[in-house]
Amino acid sequence: MAPPHKPGSFRCRGRRPRSSERQGVTLDLATLRLAALAALVPLAVAVADTPLRTFGQRYVAHRWAERLVLFSIELNLLLLWALAKLFLGRDAALAPEAAQLALAGAGAVLAWAGAALTVWAKFTLGRWYSASFGVKLGHELVAHGPYAIVRHPMYTGLLVLGIGLGVAYDSALTLGLALVFVVPLVLHALIEEQLFARHFGSTWDAYRANVPMLVPGLRPRR
Questions:
Q1: Is residue 180 part of a domain?
Q2: What's the CATH code of the domain at 149?
Q3: Cα 98 to the center of its chain, rounded Å
Q4: Measured distance CA(87)–CA(43) in Å, rounded
Q5: Does residue 7 have a pLDDT over 90?
Q6: Structural domains in the chain (count)
Q7: Range of the domain at 185
Q8: Rounded Cα gap, residues 219 and 211, in angstroms
Q9: pLDDT over 70 percentage in the chain
Q10: Would residue 21 count as lying in a domain?
């Protein structure tokens, strides 16, 4: 027979989660974050031929100096992120711990959407793709597929991918890096558009007047 409870000694306690349940939540979070990171794999495969598409090509116009300057800026931004995140451990969460699972899921979706757009745009460009700022011999203006949505879908996709990784990993620093990358990518677009305007003339002007630069649905500047 159980001894009687003393007055005021009874306390109702909620059931503590089992260790396996807690571990399951952790595994789910890790899996979603790994899924977001895996979006880099198809992107890396798609751009594996970049050296072949860039070097040894016949260009009628190119701007290597500007490309090297922007490449150095982008590399330094990535190195600063690595220093702060990996070596100094300087970062901040985007949301409370209870929201991490939802953030990881949303981030994974964004990361894969960004990677898919980038890969789609790269293959749509075909042989006109290059990592430099240039117009190749016989260059044709591509205005179908993702290029009917925005003029620079690869840059849009990369930004969405970076935002997705920042959200998935609940990392204000990574999200900030993705947002800062808007500046060099817009400069990329502006330099390329100067070349295209000179090469394609009125055809480019008509295309530019109807298709936004980076944000779908945003009315182009006249």
A1: yes
A2: 1.20.120.1630
A3: 25
A4: 26
A5: no
A6: 1
A7: 40-210
A8: 8
A9: 87
A10: no
